Amino acid sequence: MNDARIKRYLEITPGALSWGIVVLFILFAIFKPVACAVLIIIFDFYWIIRTVYLTTLLIMAHRHLSKEKNRDWFKDCAALDSGWQELYHLVIFPVYKEGLDILRPSLEALNKCNYPKEKIIVVVGFEERNDLSADNAKALESEFAKGFLGYISTFHPDGLPSEQRTKGANATWAAKKAKEFIDDKGISYEKVIVSCFDADTCVEKEYFGCLSYHFLTQERPHQASYQPIPVYNNNIWQASSFARVVETSSSFCQMIEAMRREKFVTFSSHSMSFKTLVDIGYWPVDMISDDSVIYWKAFIFYKGQYRVVPLYITVSMDAAYDKNFIKTIIMQYKQKRRWAWGVENFPFVVRGFLRSPEIPLLVKIRRGFNLLESHVTWAVWAVIVVLVGPLPVLLGGSLFKEMSISYNLPRITGMLFNFTIAASIVWIILSRTLLPPRPKGISRIKSVLIIVEWLLVPAIILVLGSTPALDAQTRMMLGRYMEFNVTEKRRKVI
Amino acid sequence: MANEQKIRSFLFYLSLFIFLVGLPFILAFALSYKFNTRTLRFAKAGLIVLKTQPSGARVYLNGKLLDEKTPATINELLPGEYAVKIELEEYYPWTVEVMVSPGKVAMFDKIILFPLRSDVEQVSRESISYFWIDQQAGLIYYVSAQGNIIYRSDLDGTNFRKICNISFPEFSLKKWKLSPDKQTLLGFNVHQIVVVDLKSKASYDESLLAPYFILNYPRQKILDVFWHSDNYHIILLTDGSIDVSEAAPKASPVRLVTLNKNNASAYYDERADVIYFSDSAKASDDRMYESVYKLDLAIKFSPFKGLMKSRSENE
Fold it and tell me: Nearest C-alpha of chain A: how many angstroms from B150?
């Protein structure tokens, strides 16, 4: 079978599985309501156990994050025997439509870092097709170029062969330009750590100290990516309730993932060895989910000997919200669908595995299954919990209604979901601790609202629980490929 | 960090253990399986669901008081017949014999417990033969057992007082009817109609009694009387005719229909202003046939229209 056909089958698999599960549940609800009720109870019980387990991991991750919050990483780094002095940091900001209001705070945060600027090379990668790119580049250069070892503005040409309009294509172009600079300076690639940040990413001042420390203390540091915890604090106080709850939940998911090391995959802003980046041929130029594909490229390149090291330090980004509630929901939906498009990793990874006999079969099965399972679960869990749950009682007919299971089903699911309420209280408490201080001009009432807004969770589950993932998988299944869509960020001036 | 991963592994296996151990119990509960200590086998049980109005009633199963109060679900019942009794103080008990089938629900979710008579309260202070309620005014009107005195009270029985004393005629009144606007009352027997004006000063001055007048029909036998929708005319069904009359002293009735039958029945549709009545008529075969007829007062019957007109002119 040729590669294109294998790819197509693998593209169909996640969507077919997800839809198959949903349809199977519906058919069971109509024709075999007792079996359907049993399956729902099994799934609900599994889901509750999973929620409690993941909430415990969240608490552990949060504890770890709090413990290392005020750590002077640069001091610890300087105390190490192996020399941080030889290390260089390459920071790439791929930019498309983001304006100066978004880019300035990111570069200011870089400027304020507790790390020698002469060890940092900054590359702001603009898209040539954006008319404002040249002016913005000039403005930023005049403000921020001083002090850094290098400050480069790159302009990614539109329509290069075999490229799609993706962030990865821009980042790759910027990295290649940075490589020329690094070659000129005669710096070894092994001594360069590259961080690819979303344009709105504001790093904490200890970020590079923390990153260098972990890089220097790792065994095989080039065979690892370094993943900070993304939080959406840049505009969190100004964002709408809906956006705030969704983005905080996203941060929680990343904190939980950081605890599940064997499944941990890079997401959004992250760092890695420049040598590895060059060796594996940079970010993909034709895929939307470049942030996770880069991990899988390295994983396959190193024959399964590649991992993600969590950094218990936050990088702050913008919460996506719009002028009104509906527009915010649409924006959030599109963003989550883009994230769910990470399902494109599945055909990429499996094909990579097929070409890599050196990777142990068990590793291939485990990682492949994890990848598929996580996307399929994402696409079906809310559908099963919210929509399929009541179906046996609604469609099961009068005979089913006389059966004790029809009476017990809502009681058991109700009882089980009391655990979810207990878990959500934990999320509320933790969410409060992740928030930055309330800025001036924001009413105290908002501090209370921020807690109350968690009542929106059921509505969020309905809208954003599974549908974006099901949408993305259906598109891939039907061969209607998505294009990269920048989530427009917005900050209110207070 | 290594410690963290150890804790995580422990939590993972603990969760897996809870799932694997807990699932059979949850499924057994959902499917109503119960271990039968007599047969030493698992048996499919049934359950009884009891919901009462009001709730909080005690539940007895085969005479044994259960801890649960209604709404209650009695789980894990082995198949068989059970006697259920529900008790709540001040209410009549509710009992049922239930046949519990394996894996089935015996649902009793609409049990209404009826209160004992202890909360029945007498509102009238005299023996009465007839009463009606003016909900808008919040009043109850009563007619005495002899049919000659009208009383009135508030809805809770307070302010009970006599509002009319009819010094009356030969025959006692057999039926009472209130005008649509609830301002006038009429009572009648076979030859007399009494009309009581409830809207007079007596309604607010306790020292006064409501005025009334009597209409006599010595030659006819009154079978029924209806208030016309204008609250001023009355329609009489007698043993030989259907008449209409003003509800005013000394009013003369106008004959609408002469009836062949002396025990006809009638119904007056107040909204449509139509009288339906039964009567017998001779057909071409010389035989008498009984039919129901319709008399449209509003459109077709001009003498009645004239009456209406004269009344509005008088007003």
Answer: 57
Interface test with A, best of B7, B9, B10, B15 (most A CBs within 10 A): B15
> Which range, of A14-23, A340-349, A445-454, B175-184, averages the lowest pLDDT?
A445-454
Are A38 and B45 an interchain contact pair (Cβ–Cβ within 8 Å)? Answer: no
Closest CA relative to residue A226, chosen from A217, A238, A237: A217
Residue A141 is encoded by which pair of tokens? 């250069």
Domain total of chain A: 2
Q: How many helices and strands, by DSSP H and E, does chain A display?
A: 19, 8
A164 and A298 both lie in a single domain? yes
- Is residue A485 assigned to a domain? no
User: Can you give the pLDDT at residue A198?
Assistant: 93
Of B26, B27, B47, the CB nearest to A404: B47
CA distance B171 to B219: 15
Amino acid at A131: D
Q: What is the pLDDT of residues A377-420, one digit of tens each?
A: 999 988 888 888 888 888 887 788 888 888 888 888 887 778 77
pLDDT of residue B307: 52
Each domain of chain B, given as residue ranges in start order, spans 44-115, 217-315
Whether residues A220 and A125 fall in one domain: yes
- Output the CA torsion sign for A439, A442, A447, A449: negative
pLDDT digits (tens, 9 = 90+) for A187-216: 999 999 999 999 999 999 999 999 999 999
- Do A53 and B107 lie within an 8 Å CB cutoff? no
Closest listed residue to residue B150, CA positions, set B204, B198, B189: B198
Q: Measured between CA atoms, how close is B75 to chain A, in angstroms?
A: 9
What percent of chain A has pLDDT above 70? Answer: 97
**Whether residue A17 has pLDDT greater than 90:** yes
Min CA distance, A96 vs chain B (Å)?
Answer: 38
Domain range spanning residue A369?
3-64+365-478
> B315 pLDDT exceeds 70?
no
**Residue B31 to residue A38, Cβ atoms within 8 A:** yes
Which segments of B128-199 are extended strands (E)? 128-134, 139-144, 149-154, 161-165, 175-178, 184-188, 192-197
Architecture of domain B44-115: Sandwich (2.60)
Q: Which of A363, A390, A425 is the last residue of a domain?
A: A363
Q: Is the pTM of this model over 0.95?
A: no
